[in-house]
Amino acid sequence: MTADVGFPLRVGLIGLSRAGWHLLERGLANCPFRVVSVFDSDAANARRAEQFGVRRTESVEQLCSATDIDLIWVSGCDSLDREITAQAIRSGRDVVVESALALRFDDHQELFSVAQKAGSRALLHCSRSDDSDVRKAMQVIQSGRLGQVRSGRWMSWAYGLCPAGVERGASEFCNGSMIRIAEQILHQMLQLMSSSPRRVSAFDSKWPGLSSESRSALALTVEFTDGALGQVELRLDSPVPLQTGWALSGEHAGYSEGRLHVVSADGEVYESPLTTTADDLDSLARLAFELRQPAGASAEFARLQTLVNLLDAVQRSCETRSVIELS
């Protein structure tokens, strides 16, 4: 998709998740995307979307063959369905997904090959990219006030395990939740760091009391080619809620919880609040910009490739209890 595509970009939407409804509603206002066609496996849900003036289609195939759309957006749980995503990619249009095409690099490469043959791109839109904490962190990095980022850390403790005594489906719930949360945070990390990941070390722990392979905690460290470190800690078994957001340490200053921390000439540390500026683009505006670039120039497309490689390395590091070098 190139810059001659009209504004707003016309979307064929597969799946009416919360993010899908948000996209529909945003399209009524000043938004770079407008949904013109929708498919949802729940027909009643799809009929409710007609109130927004969109066309309801009866199948994924019908939506993908529409001539009045510029791209296909696969939303919610449907973005985890490889066959649905593959159908969208085979249409030859650019495809936006809300989760990585696959959590293993080899599986991702299969879909990537399909995209290359079809002349399509798959771009990732993570809803958490619009968290105010991430946008402020991006803003202070882009301002140059931090200098080179040397370290970034994100931490979250929460209670998200299945009810006590529930074995059936527990592994899928806990493992799926853990890696999908990590996916969102690693996507943010790749945006915040200025170089490419070089090696990964990750450890997870089993959910106590269960015979399944469910995990209740994940800790990982990513080393980047410029020497910066990115660290993430997740717990799903903590009755104490704690989430830090991004803390960044740079050569000139630091950032945490919306505040800039600067060391003065006499060695004193002082802090000042930060606010996002009016020209700060949200994730939808940035995504629309990427979609308008020639296929070879999309930074987000390259970032998706790196993200899947990183997710694969995290899982292999957990399995082998070793440091994984990234090619």
Structural features, described:
The chain has 327 residues and is α/β, with parallel strands linked by helices. It has two domains: 117 residues, Rossmann fold (3-Layer(aba) Sandwich), CATH 3.40.50.720; 149 residues, 2-Layer Sandwich (Dihydrodipicolinate Reductase, domain 2), CATH 3.30.360.10. It is 33% helix and 29% strand. It has nine helices and 15 strands. It has a nine-stranded mixed sheet with strand order 14-13-12-11-7-10-9-8-15, covered by helices on one side. The chain is globular and about 65 Å long. The N terminus is likely disordered.
Low-confidence stretches: 2-6, 162-175
Tell me the quaternary state.
single chain
Mean of residue pLDDT? 81
How would you describe the shape? globular
Which class of the largest domain in CATH terms? Alpha Beta
- Please identify the structural class as seen in this structure: alpha/beta
CATH topology (fold) name of the largest domain? Dihydrodipicolinate Reductase, domain 2
CATH superfamily of the largest domain: Dihydrodipicolinate Reductase, domain 2
How many distinct helices?
9
Query: What is the total domain count?
Result: 2
Ends apart, CA distance between termini: 29 Å
* Strands, count: 15
Question: N-to-C SSE series?
Answer: EHEHEHEHEHEHEHEEEEEEEHHE
Strand content: 25-35%
Radius of gyration: 21 Å
Question: What's the architecture of the largest domain in CATH terms?
Answer: 2-Layer Sandwich
| Biggest sheet details | 9 strands, mixed
Helix content: 25-40%
Lateral arrangement of strands in the main beta sheet = 14-13-12-11-7-10-9-8-15
